[in-house]
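User: Predict the structure for this protein chain, please.
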Amino acid sequence: MTEVDIEKENAAIAKAYKQLLKVSYQTLTVADKKLIRQAFDVAVDAHKNQRRKSGEAYIFHPIAVAKIVAQEIGLDATCIAAALLHDVVEDNPDYTLADIEEKFGKTVARIVDGLTKISSLSKEADVSTQAENFRKMLLTLNDDVRVIIIKIADRLHNMQTMDSMRSDKQEKIASETLYIYAPLAHRIGLYNIKSDLEDLGLKYTEPEVYHEIHNKIKESKEEQDAYIKAFTKVIEDSLDKEGLTYDIKGRPKSIYSIRRKMLKQGVSFDEVYDKFAVRIIYKSDFANEKFLAWKIYSIVTDHFIPNPIRLRDWISSPKSTGYEALHITVMGPKGRWVEVQIRSERMNEIAEKGYAAHYKYKEGHAEDALDTWIDKLQEALESNETNAVDFVEQFKLNLYSKEIYVFSPKGDLKSLPKGATPLDFAFSIHTEIGMKTRGAKVNGKLVPLSHELQSGDQVEILTSENIKPNSNWLDYATTARARSKIKSSLKDEKKEAAVEGKEILRRKLKQLKITLDEKSINEMVVFFKLKTSLDLFYRVGIGSIDNPMLKDFASSRSGVIMSYIKSKIRKPTVIQNIDKDEITAKYDSLVFGKEEEKLDYKLSACCNPIPGDDVFGFLTINEGIKVHKKNCPNALSLQSNYAYRIMQAKWIDSSQQEFAAQITLSGIDNLGLVNNITKVISSNMHVNMKSISFQSDDGVFSGKINVIVKNNTMLKKLMENLKKINGIDKVIRV
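Assistant: Here is the predicted structure, written as C-alpha cells:
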C-alpha cells in the first residue's frame, strides 16, 4: 500500500471510531469514553498486521461489531470495550487475558474470555462436534448473557460482509446462523437483528428465492407507501382529536418471514396478505400506558373492522422475551388485511433493543423476564445427561417456541411453550411436584398427562407420594427442564434395579457353586453378549436373565478343559469399558414417531447407522424413509432446512421395551379374592396393570387382566404367583 492509501485508511479508522461514540444508545460518561478509547488503542495495535478476506484492515471488523453493540443493541461502555477487544487474545499472542484484566478489569476480561472460548471452537467440524461447540457456547449464557449478545453482533457483521468468501463457506455459516444465532437473537428480544440474520441467512442458502422476493418488494414499494399513507390518514384525525403524541410507521415484513408464509400457506408472493405492518408508537408515562393503548385500539377499530381471532394482547401478559405490544389485524382499504402494532415509546425501545432497554427501564419494576428465562435454562443446561445434538435440538425448541399462558388453581399466570402438557406445567412449578405427578385436572376435568394445554386453561396437578416417573413420561413432556429431570430419574431407577439384580445374582450363583467376583462377572458379560457389568445386574434385576439362562452359563463354565483348549485356538474376547457406569440398551429394531410405529426404511449411505446409534428418520421424495445418525454430516442441514420431514426414530430394546399381555383367570369365588389378585399384581415389581374386569356367576369366578410387562420372564412369574391364590383354578395367557 502506498503512503497515501495508508493515510486514507487511518482517516477512515478514526472516522469509524468517532461514529461509534456518536451513535451509542447509552449516554457515555467521561470515564466510559476513556475506557472505550483504551480498548480501541489496544485493538488497533493487536490487529495492525491483519487484513480481512476483502482486503480491508481487520480493525474495521471489531469497530463494526462494537457499533452494532452500541447502537442497535444499545449496551453500555463495558460491552462496547469488550466488543472492540473480542478477537485480541485469540489473534495476537502478545496479549493475554491477564493483560486484559489488568487494563480493563474483571468484567471485560470475563466477557472477552467467553468470546475467545467460543471462537476457538473448531470451525471445520462434523455435526456432533459442531453441536458440542454450540453446547459450550450456550453454556456461557450462565456466566454472562453479554457474551452471547456480542457473539450475535459479531455474527451479524460477518454475515453482512460475507461476499468475498467461497460459496460453500457462505452456505455453512448461513445455515448455522439460521439454525442457532437467529433463534437466539429472537429469544433475547433482539427482533431487528433476528430479522437481519434471517434475511442474510436466506440470501446465502437460497439466493434465487431471496433475490426474487427482494426485487418484488422493491417494485411494490411505491404502491405500498401510498397505501400506508392512505391508511394512516384515516386514523390520524381521530388520534389528533384525542390530543395524543404519536408516530405512525409502516414497515415491510422481512424477506424471510414472507418466504416462510409463502411456504406455510402454499401461496405466491402476491397472495401473501399481510406483507407489511403499521406501527403506532405513542408517548405516555408508565401509569397511563395500558389505558392509552386500548384507547388507540378503539380509535383504529372505529375506522376499520378488526379480525377477532387475530388480537394479541402482550401488554397485560408480556412475552417471556419481555416484548409488550397490542397487535390487531384490521380490514384496510381495498379489502386488504393490515397488521397494526400499538406500542408506547418504552415498549418500542424494548422491542428494538431487547436486553439493554430492559435494564434501562428495570429500576423499580418486577424481576426481568430475561433473567427468569436464564434461570430456568440454567437447570436444563446443567444436566449433561443428553448428547450434544439432542441438547441443541432441545435448546432450539425453547428458543422459538410460541407461548401459551395458563393459570394455577390459585389464579397465578404461568407462561409455557406452545404444545406443553400438564407434566411440563408440574415440572415448571417444582421438580418435586413433577416427580410425584399422579394426574391433572384442566378446567376442573381430569385429563391424561399427554393432554395439550391451551392458553387460558386452569391447571391443577394431583400428586401422590408413591408415584415415580416412567419411560412413557418422555412422550408426554416437551420442555427441556421436564425431560432432563425425567431422564435422570429413569436412570436412577435402572441403577436401583441393577443394585437389586446384583444381590439376586449373588444368591443364584451361590446355588450354582459360583462366586460372584470380577472374573465371573466378566465371563457372564461375554456369555450374555452385553456391554457393561451394570447391564448384567440390571437384566437380572428385571428378570430378562433368568434361572435357566444362568444354568446354561454354569454348564458352559464347567466344560472348562474343553473351553481352555478352545480358547487356545480361538482369540479370547476382550471387553472394553466393562465397568462403565451405564446401562446400555440391547437394541434390535427401529421404530418411528411418538407412536413408535414400525415402518419400512433404508439406512443412509452417508453415515451408515448401526443398531444402537442415535438416529432420526428423514422422509425423502423418492426413496421413502432414510435413517441418518444424529451426528451425520448432513444432519444439521437436513434439520435446519427440512425440519418438517424429520421423524423421530429410535432402536428399541427388548429389555427396556414394555409389552402388553392379557391374562384370564377362572376359579371358585370367595370373599376377598379380588383383593388378593390385585395385591399380587401390585407387589410384582415392574408390572403395570392397564385394565381389569371380573365377574362372578353362581359361585364361579372369571376375570380378565391386561398388564404391561418388560419381558416374558416377568409374566411367567406373575402367573405363577396368581396360581397360588386360594380359589384360583386356571391362569392362562391369551
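The two ends are 89 Å apart (CA to CA).
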